[in-house]
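A favour, since you know our structure tokens better than I do. What I am after is a single protein written out in full by you. Could you add the entry underneath, on a fresh line?


***
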Amino acid sequence: MLDRCKSAAPKSRPVIGWREWLALPDLGIATIRAKIDTGARSSALHVDALETFRVGGREWVRFVVATDASGAAPVVVETAVHDRRPVTDSGGHVSERIFLLTRMTLAGCSYPIEINLASRQHMSFPMLLGRSALRRRFTVDPARSFRAGRLARKAAVAP
């Protein structure tokens, strides 16, 4: 997975708002709304019907993602588990979560990020993009929203 967007020079980084549309093309998610959260270390994706299984001795996960894109059907995803780690939520509760390593596309940048799978059913956004995924790639303008625009469904899923 290539990372074409890492930049040490802050002035050359794309500016994004506090909420953006992004894509997770390796998971078949062409567009999903995400809250940009520089206070959260990791990124989280809301999933339903999560189940794990084994393929060739390796742990995999199957889940459903409702992308909240208008008219889009929920996406059923099957992918390898990257890791399991404890995560502390905003309320201070610790739980073990499954982490995936997958490609994200945002503001013309496409690179691998880690995402943990969580229940975010009571949250306004199905995805939270944390600072580990943002580091040295973007400048966040908290007064703006959707600066990167909305992704075209077909273009975002192409490899």
